[in-house]
């Protein structure tokens, strides 16, 4: 059985963590499969967005597989980890990346959640960073969550290791929305993907690049960078087509160039 499933649904490539018997826990094969899925989506011009979810209705992702031989191991000769590289790839992805939380999302699963552009969840999902309960700490996840959540909230979650519900995750900025059922969650994301598919691929691509680049700039640095980026965007085929379509009162036909 493949650790990761890929499924084209309309304009999106759905990547499903497929280890439901292990609560979709992370091992080397799962990381390799997700990485391949992202590469596949990026290479296909017909794919406008990527959706990452989990198999079953119990868990989105339980974090690293802590069972003996489960894959929670380190090569100390290497300065980078496979999981860290996975988060880097998600952050660098030029296409919109959405997480659909179908169940429990804890530990390393929170890293997947935090690395995405947007995240939605079913109402009953639980979240948490319980690493301290097994003598560890969510080190790599902290690199992302420190920019998403207020510092005292993050310390609460990381130092207590407590679980919390989707409502708290939404209130603290981890989620964009909550759906009552799995079916409603999928329908909501399908509608979101449909909306994004009508937009300029080059605008989304350059916009994501600019947002990441400006993340740690001062205002003066960021606004200067944005001014230069806006000027460059006017040179794209999509910008010319979009402006022409607006003035001609027609639907634009974007090429992604």
TrEMBL record:
Gene Ontology molecular-function annotations: isomerase activity
Classification via Pfam families: ECH_1
InterPro entries in the cross-refs: ClpP/crotonase-like_dom_sf (IPR029045), Enoyl-CoA_hydra/iso (IPR001753), Enoyl-CoA_hydra_C (IPR014748), Enoyl-CoA_Hydratase/Isomerase (IPR051683)
Keywords annotated in UniProt: Isomerase
Entry's family note: Belongs to the enoyl-CoA hydratase/isomerase family.
Family annotation (PANTHER family): ENOYL-COA HYDRATASE, POLYKETIDE BIOSYNTHESIS ENOYL-COA HYDRATASE PKSH-RELATED
Protein name per its UniProtKB record: Enoyl-CoA hydratase/isomerase family protein
Species for this entry: Thalassobius vesicularis
